[in-house]
Amino acid sequence: MPRALSVLEKIVSSILSVMGLEEIAARASGQFRTTQSMVANGLRDAILSGVLAGGQPLRQEEIAESFGVSRSPVREALRQLEGEGMVAFIPHRGAVVSEISHYEVEEITEIRIALETMAMHKAIPLLEDDDLERAEEVLHRIDREEDLITYWSELNWRFHATLFAPAERPRLLALIKSQHDAFERYIRMHLALSDYEKPQSEHYELLDLCRKKDTDAILKLLTQHIENTSELLVTYIKDGKETGANGLAKNTS
Amino acid sequence: MPRALSVLEKIVSSILSVMGLEEIAARASGQFRTTQSMVANGLRDAILSGVLAGGQPLRQEEIAESFGVSRSPVREALRQLEGEGMVAFIPHRGAVVSEISHYEVEEITEIRIALETMAMHKAIPLLEDDDLERAEEVLHRIDREEDLITYWSELNWRFHATLFAPAERPRLLALIKSQHDAFERYIRMHLALSDYEKPQSEHYELLDLCRKKDTDAILKLLTQHIENTSELLVTYIKDGKETGANGLAKNTS
DNA sequence: GTATTGTATATTGGATGCAAAGTCAAGAAG
DNA sequence: CTTCTTGACTTTGCATCCAATATACAATAC
User: Fold this and answer.
1) Same domain, yes or no, for B76 and B201?
2) Of residues A227, A229, A228, A223, the one with CA closest to residue A206
3) Domains in chain A: how many in total?
4) Which of B196, B159, B176 is nearest to B117 (CA)?
5) Closest-CA distance of chain B to residue A70, Å
6) Separation in Å, CA of B117 to nearest CA in chain A
7) Which of A240, B119, B143, B221 is the most exposed place for a label (fewest CB within 10 A)?
């Protein structure tokens, strides 16, 4: 029992310490105007960061205590995440962090390729020097970043989102992000540092092709980029299944 | 006040009367094992059927009374629908049925074309006579159906889903359905009986091409089919905005 | 020894109560 | 006449309480 508490407390405090000002700003500027939204964001973060592993049961009382609130906002937060597909409810048994199989990884890969190539295709003719500069800036930040395990997800997304942005398709972007997220939490858990090198070099390649506005080559490389990630993930998931869900396994007693 | 109540009561009773045995079976077999899921399904139905129009505020107390429950399960149901994107919460002001603009219709159209042509493409080589027969059966039901305003949505979806099914992509299918749903509730509200004729004849055409396994022609027709729906919808939404369903005037910039 | 039934305990699901935020209209100030 | 303030009222958001359900384990029957 105290174990689970400490895990969540770590998340909460990590949000508060790592994000620091961002957190406080968000709170002030109306991002966290309700307890529910704070809990929802905290849990989402915890799931995406891999602290709460797939299949892990989410005890309402524990979560409530961790956040220092009652169960009502916790239940609402869980329901919202259910709607987002991040947790699954089993009636009278509670919520668990939803898992994806390697079949689903392959399915998501197809979806991502379809959606991302579309977004990219729409964005290419509208890409300005300004956008490309900002994208490159993100890549430099990745190069400089010491703690990639924590920040890869966010920076990687920011790079791709920057390239998609000129397309001005908010709904499409949201869809892509949700598919992205389904991947990233496994990425963060499993990948070693060396695994970041190849995608990062592909990022530079992609940026270069974007400068040349070579549509065909861009879409081809983007497709390849997604497929590479997918392959890595499938390997890790299959391995994990074989060896028996390591890491934060903390099931019965 | 009594107006909104009667509207919702109509929905609830229509679920109970129309579904009859199905409803009871569902309840017994675990579909509605909690009040929350009943309310969520009821509200989703009400929104998709257009009974609860876009922008309409959703008073928790009213809904709770309509369903004969307290506000707790109602709030949870609303949160779940928020996660699904069907309602939007404004802190301390409550939930409203989310709306889509004609910009969003155009965006969803692109997304639908990308996802549905992909699903169809994967399904074509796997289509069996059996599938085609079931699809045709649905079309006959549409021909026979008196109350298309109520049942078009469901039957139309069933037809397309039948053709997508052999692809065996549950996540993709779910994504397509959610984009579909974003359209259908406007369709149901706005379209006249005559508007169903063209899509239905396209359905027969599509089925015919599926029999011939003419991939290129199928994908082309499917794209056209989606675009036609989209155009109708854009017209109706623009008309609605112009003619004075002003209500909550929003982003026109 | 295995299967089944009954009971204790933990956990979820739902109802109720109360404080806080928001809304609206009437009246005062400019 | 318009704008701002004030206070009653509405509605939301959260905490607490109680009931319903599931799980684990022990006791009993076969």
Assistant:
1) no
2) A223
3) 2
4) B176
5) 13
6) 10
7) B143
Q: Note down the domain range covering B9.
A: 2-97
- B171 to chain A: which residues are within 8 Å by CB? 104, 107-108, 111
Band (B245; pLDDT cuts 50, 70, 90)? very low
Q: B68 to chain A, minimum CA–CA distance in Å?
A: 20
Domain of B92, CATH number, reads 1.10.10.10
Please tell me the pTM assigned to this model: 0.83
Same domain, A149 and A239: yes
| Residue B100 Cβ under 7 A from any strand C atom | no
Residue closest to B58 by CA, chosen among B94, B109, B105? B94
Tell whether A230 and A112 lie within a shared domain: yes
What does pLDDT average to in each consecutive run of 10 residues of chain A (253 residues)? 42 42 37 86 89 88 92 96 94 92 94 98 97 97 91 94 97 95 83 85 97 97 96 81 40 32
Nucleic strand D under 7 Å from the C-beta of B212: no
Note the pLDDT tens digit of each residue in B28-50. Answer: 344 578 999 999 999 998 998 88
User: Buried b / exposed e across A57-95, counting CB within 10 Å, b at 16+?
Assistant: ebbbebbbbbbebeeebbbbbbbbbbbbbbbbbeeeeeb
Residue A79, nucleotide of least CA–C1' distance = C13
Is the pLDDT confidence value at B140 over 70? yes
The 3-state DSSP class for residue B97 equals: strand
Q: Which residues of B touch A37 (CB under 8 A)?
A: 91
Q: How high is the pLDDT of residue A31?
A: 57
Domain termination site, one of B97, B112, B142: B97
Closest Cβ opposite residue B33 in set A76, A91, A104: A91
Q: Is the CB of B246 under 7 A from strand C?
A: no
Give strand letter and number of the nucleotide nearest A64 (CA to C1').
D15
Q: What does the pLDDT read at residue B238?
A: 77
